[in-house]
Design goal:
about 270 residues, alpha/beta, Rossmann fold, Threonyl-tRNA Synthetase, Chain A, domain 2, 2 domains
């Protein structure tokens, strides 16, 4: 890229840019407008699938930017999404490994591939249409573990032997071939850089699965999590590299992004 942007912003969605209760980004309108007017890339980074995140990205007006999907398991390129062209090869390979697990272990794991869209809707609370989009996976498999800790450890050992890793969030045991939001951040920053210039980067998130992303950028902002799944104190908070917003959701997001654009933090501060 011959003329990299001066800034680049990475953001989680639910509970960060999107309000936890109604999924609205209205309170962040001022900062979003400034990003548009200044041609600053906004990189969405979420556990959502490419199908889910592409419609949000288009609504926000950032179709010209890549996005990080399925918690960093993959990247959605810039541009309109052609659903028919989605490469689901990694997902099919992952499901085969899961299904080939010893029967006495496989019986305890129920993933999205085992469920209908209606079941996914009931388990996740997503509307049926959104549950359908969530089922169109490319890189990772969320699921529920029904066994005890000992059998789960055996299942994980089997998965690791096949090159599969897992993250256990607040509810789901999500399986993939590795990578996380932080790794993808580095890859995307490189695409916006050249030997003479590298954009200053900011990441915003509210949950533990955002930690790698927040630590991978020049500056990070921890958005308060109203549901109690808090990010512990991180290295960098004492220097101001990482700060904590005073308000949750898009309200805190709006203030933090505007402050970053107007006066990038260089010392300990509380955005």
């Amino acid at each position: 890229m011959s003329n990299p942007p001066n800034f680049i912003v990475f953001t989680d969605l639910d509970g960060t840019l999107l309000d936890h209760s109604n999924y609205s980004y209205k309170a962040a309108s001022d900062a979003l407008h400034t990003l548009h007017e200044s041609n600053i890339p906004l990189i969405l980074a979420s556990s959502k699938t490419a199908v889910e995140i592409s419609s949000i990205r288009a609504e926000l007006g950032f179709d010209n930017c890549p996005a990080i999907v399925e918690n960093g398991a993959g990247i959605l390129p810039a541009g309109p999404l052609n659903i028919k062209s989605l490469d689901r090869t990694p997902y099919r390979k992952l499901i085969k490994i899961i299904n080939d697990a010893p029967a006495e272990l496989r019986c305890f794991y129920e993933g999205f591939s085992d469920w209908t869209a209606d079941k996914i809707s009931k388990v996740t609370g997503l509307p049926f249409e959104d549950a359908t989009k969530s089922s169109q996976r490319q890189f990772s498999e969320p699921g529920l573990w029904k066994g005890d800790a000992e059998t789960r450890e055996q299942f994980v050992e089997y998965l690791n032997s096949c090159g599969v890793s897992y993250r256990h969030g607040g509810r789901f045991m999500t399986l993939s071939f590795g990578a996380n939001k932080g790794i993808r951040v580095g890859e995307i920053i490189n695409t916006y850089s050249n030997p003479q210039s590298r954009p200053l980067s900011l990441a915003l998130g509210d949950a533990p699965n955002d930690v790698e992303m927040i630590q991978a950028t020049d500056f990070g902002v921890i958005i308060p999590n109203a549901h109690g799944n808090q990010i512990p104190r991180l290295n960098g908070e004492e220097t101001g590299k990482i700060s904590r917003a005073q308000h949750a959701g898009p309200v805190g997001w709006n203030v933090s992004v505007l402050q970053f654009l107007n006066s990038p933090p260089t010392h300990q501060s509380k955005i």
